[in-house]
Amino acid sequence: MDFVHISEAIKKGSGKVAIRGWVYRERKLKDKVFLVIRDATNIIQCIVSNENIAWEDANKLLIESSVEIEGNIYEDKRAPTGYEIKVDKLNVIQFAEKYPITEDQSPEFLLDNRHLWIRSRKLTAVLKIRSTVFGAIHEYFRNTGFYEYQSPIIQSTQTEGGSTLFEVNYFGKKLFLSQTWQLHAEAGIFALEKIYTIAPSFRAEKSKTSRHLTEYWHAEMEGAWFSFDDVQDIGEALIKHIVGKVLEQNQIELKILGRDPKKLEPTLKKKFPRLSYTEALELIKKKFNLKLEWGKDLRTIEEDKLSSLYDTPIIVTRYPKVVKAFYMKEDSKDSKVVLGCDFIAPEGYGEIIGGSERESDQKKIIQRLKEIGENPKNYEFYLDTRRYGSIPHGGFGCGVERVISWICGLDNIKDAIAFPRTMLRYNP
Length: 428
Ligand code: 4AD
Ligand code: MG
What we know:
Elements: H1 6-12, E1 15-28, E2 32-38, E3 43-49, H2 55-60, E4 66-75, E5 83-94, H3 107-112, H4 114-117, H5 121-143, E6 147-148, E7 154-155, E8 167-170, E9 173-177, H6 182-192, E10 194-202, E11 215-224, H7 228-249, H8 251-256, H9 265-269, E12 274-276, H10 277-288, H11 300-307, E13 314-317, E14 330-331, E15 334-338, E16 340-345, E17 350-357, H12 362-371, H13 380-384, E18 393-399, H14 400-408
Parallel strand pairs: 3-5, 6-10, 12-13
Antiparallel strand pairs: 1-2, 1-4, 2-3, 4-5, 7-9, 8-9, 10-11, 11-18, 13-16, 14-15, 16-17, 17-18
Helix pairs in contact: 5-7, 5-14
The structure holds 4-amino-1,4-dioxobutan-2-aminium adenosine-5'-monophosphate and magnesium ion.
């Protein structure tokens, strides 16, 4: 008999089926063994009775043993997924050793055993949503005329500030892991005009927060001729597309995670509010009596307060030049601010997109580099993009795990990726 996935067996609902997978739960009674079997698609309860030739094997099975099962499926409202299989044949592929993960383990223990914990219902659901999110990003950009393009991971300069750079000993030379694809992407638009990538970015973040990884997946786009408004419009359309796809394809997983899909629906339906940094400060002061000096970057507390006022992501624009990266374009109406924007997710999930229109004036970039203590000589290739056919352009970067955390309603960003990397977590 051909094996089918558990979801297909349940869809069939009656008659003979053959499934294979792993023992998710087992309960041994005097005359019956209840086995809950899981595969990538679902779980199902299977019953072996003492008249069955498989009785002896069934009694030896421990959690995560791998098995093939043939039997009759029928509806049973009491079973965990509403159906049950009466086992005719049980073929044990491997009798598992005693599984180290039992109920009520500490988060640290589960992280130490991450290679096993990814089999859990919770992480399996997150990983399925993650797959949808990656697919949706590719789909969005490809459907709107972007080329997929790659920047090097090993780079010779910083882009997003020296404090979060990871050094690489490169044959005795000090080089760095990529914080962003951006500088090389800005070179790429002169060939392809509209480009995107999904690649790992690295940040030596010493902070232990629920939002920071040291290795995260970064969806970035860059486009020739893009204005500051274009950057915001594309970011908003991308987030809407991702959320739409998850709502379309992952209702079951959202349910497993206890995530109310209604929380995500406003993001699809409403336009994201756009407000300037200065307006954001005024709003926080008025609503929460929280004062932040103009010129200081928004901290977690300000971002969280701000996001609590809305049920969609919001776009904060025109930050003070001093808190933003050297490549952001100066606002022609106010030289103290730059045409940069951050998308802040609802429910306190923080910044999910950072983007800007880029400074096209070579002299201004050189000036800014000097101000932050960088030697413009090290950025010669980048400055060439402003020497040979410089054009208005812009782009953004989206932290994919931040988006997944928010969509799934996770407590910690570590659960948005199979094998998280933080300052203290690099195993397994
Ligand atoms: O705001 P950031 O630093 O912007 C850039 O890197 C730009 N060069 C992107 C561009 O314009 N092409 O990072 C972009 C996004 C943030 O908004 C956040 O969502 C995510 O990357 N991010 C992180 N996600 C997880 N862990 C970290 N340590 C992150 N640091 C940034
Ligand atoms: Mg940022």
